[in-house]
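Section 5: illustrative case.
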C-alpha cells in the first residue's frame, strides 16, 4: 500500500552537520568589512583565506586579507588540484585552497569563504549543499559612491567594476540568500548572516561535502 506524504526513510541522525557558507557580491558591497567584524565578534566560523596573484595594497596584511602568491605558484596549485575553485578577476587570479576547507569541515567546524560571483557558482555546482549568500549594496548609486570613496582603482578600472557589478546583479537568483549591506550598519549585516546560519542549522538537510 502506498503511503501518503513523506516516505519513511528509516533512522535519521539529527545531529547538525557543519555548514559551508559562501559569501559573494560585487566589488564595494562590503564583504571584507563584514568578515572583519565577524572575526571581531568571534563568530564561531573557520574563515578561509583566499590565495591571489593580485598586488598587495598598503593596508593589507599577507595571510589575513589574502595569501599573496606568484603566478608560478598559483599555476602549481592548479596543476596539483589544491584549489577548490579559481578564477581570473580583473586580470588577477584568485583561488580557494581546498585543504583548510576540508580540514575544518572534518573537524565539524562551520566554514565561510569569500569568493567572486563566478567562484560562488562553481562551488555551488561541485558542492550543492553549500549555502550561498549574496551581499549587495542598497543601490548602484551607493555602490558607485563606495568604490569612488575607497580610491583604489583608476577611472578605467572603476568603470569596469561598475559595469561588472551590473552584470553580477543578474546572478542574484542563483543564490540562496541576499543580504543588503547598509553603510555604518555592519553589525546588522552580521546579525542577518548569523540568522541564516541558525536557520540552516535547523533545516532537515543532508549535507555531504566530497572534497
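Designed sequence:
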Amino acid at each position: 500500500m502506498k503511503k501518503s506524504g513523506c516516505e519513511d526513510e528509516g533512522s535519521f541522525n539529527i545531529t547538525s552537520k557543519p555548514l559551508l557558507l559562501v559569501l559573494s557580491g560585487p566589488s564595494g558591497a562590503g564583504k571584507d568589512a563584514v568578515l572583519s567584524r565577524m572575526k571581531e565578534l568571534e563568530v564561531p566560523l573557520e574563515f578561509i583565506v583566499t590565495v591571489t596573484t593580485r598586488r598587495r595594497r598598503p593596508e593589507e596584511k599577507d595571510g589575513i586579507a589574502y595569501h599573496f602568491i606568484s603566478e608560478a605558484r598559483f599555476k602549481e596549485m592548479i596543476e596539483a588540484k589544491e584549489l577548490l575553485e579559481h578564477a581570473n578577476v580583473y586580470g588577477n587570479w584568485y583561488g580557494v585552497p581546498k585543504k583548510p576547507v576540508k580540514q575544518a569541515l572534518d573537524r565539524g567546524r562551520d566554514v565561510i569563504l569569500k569568493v567572486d560571483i563566478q567562484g560562488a557558482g562553481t562551488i555551488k555546482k561541485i558542492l550543492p549543499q553549500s549555502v550561498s549568500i549574496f551581499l549587495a549594496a542598497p543601490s548602484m548609486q551607493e555602490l558607485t559612491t563606495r568604490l569612488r570613496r575607497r580610491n583604489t582603482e583608476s577611472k578605467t578600472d572603476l568603470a569596469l567594476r561598475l559595469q561588472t557589478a551590473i552584470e553580477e546583479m543578474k546572478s542574484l537568483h542563483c543564490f540562496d540568500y541576499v543580504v543588503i549591506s547598509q553603510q555604518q550598519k555592519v553589525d546588522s549585516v552580521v546579525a542577518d548572516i548569523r540568522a541564516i546560519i541558525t536557520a540552516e542549522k535547523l533545516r532537515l538537510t543532508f549535507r555531504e561535502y566530497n572534497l
